[in-house]
Amino acid sequence: MNGPLRTTGAPGAGGIPRGGHPAVREIRIVLVDDHSIMRQGLRAVLEREEDLRVVGEAGSVPEAFAAVAAGRPQVVLLDLKLSSGPQPDGLEVCRRLCAEHPGIGVLVLTTFAEDRLVVESVQAGARGYVVKDVDTTELVRAIRAVSRGESAFDARSASAMVRSLSGGMPDRERLTDRELDVLRLLARGLSNRAIGAELFISETTVKFHVGNLMRKLMVSRRAEAVYAATKLGLL
Question: How confident is the model over 122-165, as pLDDT tens digits?
Fold first, then answer.
């Protein structure tokens, strides 16, 4: 485990100013990490932000599911290593949480910066991936982005995604012209129906193309497809 997160700025930095507008949208968070000191440090840092509220903690796989069920968070901060075993069991936790709670945003916060784990986390449904030496401002920004359904990666994780996505994609896996058309409209935030209207194709056909391009880009969400395509210079 890395040391405590680096803190930058005054309390509330990167968030809504203290004493600001009273109608603050609260972001409910569950912390999943097998080190209690890490969880305590995270709670102390995050609850300095007016819009962030930690509603649960977990130090093991069973506790993770119980804490999410009880706390109903928008965001789960998830370490990939939750036991002494050799495998990163957090990947399976991520996969199950995203399947059982479709609206939830999983943000991986871990010590591992391996390309493979970044990609596998995204494939498991994570919306973001940051390593534990991230500073507080970046972490808070990532949490807010994930809560809005956006993607969030630190610089190293973003680079890992790009390396994985651009590493020798075979011709049969390259995006077709039609998939690129769909991708450009996805980047404008259009729904499947609106994309179909723009391209004069059915909504079912749009859904087919979206599924294909997300598979080829190795992502699980529309926002991640746009992010990955931008990094690859496709947009």
Answer: 888 898 899 998 889 999 999 998 998 888 888 778 777 666 65
Q: CA dist 73 to 39, 40, 93, 232, Å?
A: 16, 18, 15, 32
Tokens 């496709």 appear where?
A: 234
pTM of the model: 0.65
> Can you tell me the distance from the alpha carbon of 176 to that of 120, in angstroms, rounded to the nearest whole number?
24
A 10 A CB-CB count for 84 gives 6
Give the span between the Cα atoms of 41 and 211, in whole angstroms. Answer: 40
Contacts of 10 (CB under 8 A, 6+ apart): none
Closest CA to 63 of 75, 74, 78, 51: 78
Q: Facing residues of 107 across strands?
A: 77, 128
CA angle 161, 217, 173 (to 5 degrees): 125
In this structure, the number of other CB atoms found within 10 A of the CB of residue 54 comes to: 20
- Rounded CA-CA distance 45/137 in Å is 10
- Phi and psi dihedrals of 129, rounded to 5? -155, 120
